[in-house]
Amino acid sequence: MTGTPLLAIEGLSCSHAGQPAVRGLGLSLQPGELGCLLGPSGCGKTTLLRAIAGFHAPDGGRLSLRGKDARALPPEKRGLGFVFQDLALFPHLTVADNVAFGLHGLARDLRRARVLETLSLIGLDGLADRYPHELSGGQQQRVALARSLAPRPDLLLLDEPFSSLDADLRGRLRDDLRAVLKRLGIAALLVTHDQEEAFAFADTVGVMQAGVLLQWAPGFELYHRPATPFVASFVGEGRFLEARVLDGNRVATALGDLPVAAALPYAVGSPVRVLLRPDDLMPSDDEGIECEVRAVAFRGAESLHTLVLGDGTALTALFPSHQQREPGQRVRVKPDLAHVVVFPAAD
Ligand code: ATP
User: Fold this and answer.
1) Which residue among 13, 43, 85 is best mutated to probe the pocket of ligand 1, counting the most ligand atoms within 8 A of its Cβ?
2) Pairwise CA distance, residues 78 & 40, whole Å
3) What is the distance between the alpha carbons of residues 119 and 334, in angstroms, rounded to a whole number?
4) Radius of gyration of the chain (CA)
5) What residue owns the CA closest to ligand 1's atom 27?
6) Separation of alpha carbons 313 and 347, rounded Å
7) Tell me, what's the pLDDT at 119?
8) CA distance between the termini of the chain
9) Is the CB of 5 inside a 6 Å radius of any atom of ligand 1?
10) Is the Cβ–Cβ distance between 150 and 118 less than 8 Å?
11) Does residue 42 line the site of ligand 1, with CB under 6 A?
12) Residue 224 CB partners (closer than 8 Å, separation 6+)
């Protein structure tokens, strides 16, 4: 059972100079829930975050925080924390003073204790008296996070906060932040371009396209049960295979008859297409469908093979790298999956 959402948005629309940027969007976040927005550049992620923060006035729709209408509240009355790509640390203030910035309401000794506790939580022990220019990029990013966490908001808005960091540092900071947020019970909404980051960080991931939220679901569900062909191709790798409806539970494909994820709303014989992920196909020595290896990308433990069926359909398959094939070789594959996801045939 879920209680009153911390954040509830319904039918929210935003525009810039008359051009729609967010269209009829709805989502909700429970206390302590970590959400993430994914989508191509320009799809409206930052605009949505700014509308939640109170920096952008929506054209219409509902936005409530802790069960109360928040649309008329100025940003400082919304009780939220923000971290944007541009860290905006104060260069003339120490780390401790940067982190204390939002703690005016606390008595001096409590403020110092909160600052030190927050620095410790985020992995900055011993750096309280340094200035921002005396820190690495990753440490500066941690200071920005500490500053937003210090007032203990119940919701943190994060707009690509790790994008300036290299992959290793980025992964560590993301995992540390997730652990701190979970420990403190703080909810967050993170905007990112990076799917791996979204899956690793969030409990719930949203995919946006042209201002519309197409799906809002746990990462596993987005990957295995994408709601639209756009979500299917945006999240993870995969190819579509033409198919025909056999009955409510099965489709016929060039790889054989495959079970479907949910009862099909299409008439028997209708043309449809199914999503095949690279991990849905396995190499098979004597049975299975023959295809030609078109390309191979070595990835360490696995190798991604692009395969072409007799009718020219291209599919991708991940084989353990010790079973890697060469381009031009013929290989037999068979599907290894619980079900396929079915979409209407392409126009
Ligand atoms: P990115 O991933 O590139 O940061 P985004 O998904 O965050 O993109 P937004 O920044 O919300 O997208 O932009 C959504 C749309 O609104 C885009 O078409 C963008 O050009 C437009 N837009 C954003 N900010 C402004 C602005 N201040 N004035 C005019 N148009 C804007």
Assistant:
1) 43
2) 28
3) 52
4) 24
5) 16
6) 16
7) 94
8) 41
9) no
10) yes
11) yes
12) 261, 341
Q: With a 6 A CB cut-off, is 45 part of the ligand 1 pocket?
A: yes
Contact 214, 231 (CB under 8 A): yes
Helix (H, G, I), strand (E, B) or coil at 235: coil
Residue 153, C-beta contacts closer than 8 angstroms, at least 6 positions apart? 79, 80, 81, 186
Kindly give the interhelix angle for 137-149 and 167-184, rounded to the nearest 10 degrees: 20
Upper half-sphere CA count for residue 192 (Cβ side, 13 Å):
24
Distance 21 CA to ligand 1 centre (A): 7
- In 30-138, DSSP assigns E strands to 34-38, 60-65, 68-69, 80-83
Which of 14, 46, 84, when mutated, tests ligand 1's pocket best, judged by the most ligand atoms within 8 Å of its CB? 46
155-159/187-191 β-pairing: parallel
Tokens, residue 268: 């028997």
**What is the whole-number distance in angstroms between the Cα of residue 65 and the centre of ligand 1?**
24
- Cβ atoms < 10 Å from Cβ of 340: 24
Token readout for 334 is 């068979």
Measure the CA–CA gap between 263 and 342, rounded to whole angstroms.
10
What is the model's pLDDT at position 2?
66
Hey, how many other C-beta atoms are within 10 angstroms of the C-beta on 118? 25
Tokens of 339: 């079900």
Please provide the size of the chain in residues: 347
Sign of CA dihedral 319, 325, 327, 329: negative
CB atoms within 10 A of CB 169: 16
Structure tokens at 69: 């209408």
Is 8:174 a contact under the CB 8 Å cutoff? no
The answer to whether the Cα torsion of 270, 227, 194, 168 is positive or negative is negative
- Protein residue whose Cα sits closest to atom 20 of ligand 1: 42
Per-10-residue mean pLDDT for the chain, 347 residues long?
87 96 97 96 95 96 96 93 82 94 86 93 92 91 92 94 81 92 96 92 97 96 92 90 91 91 86 92 85 94 93 91 92 88 86
User: Looking at this protein, which amino acid is placed at residue 341?
Assistant: V
pLDDT value at position 170? 86
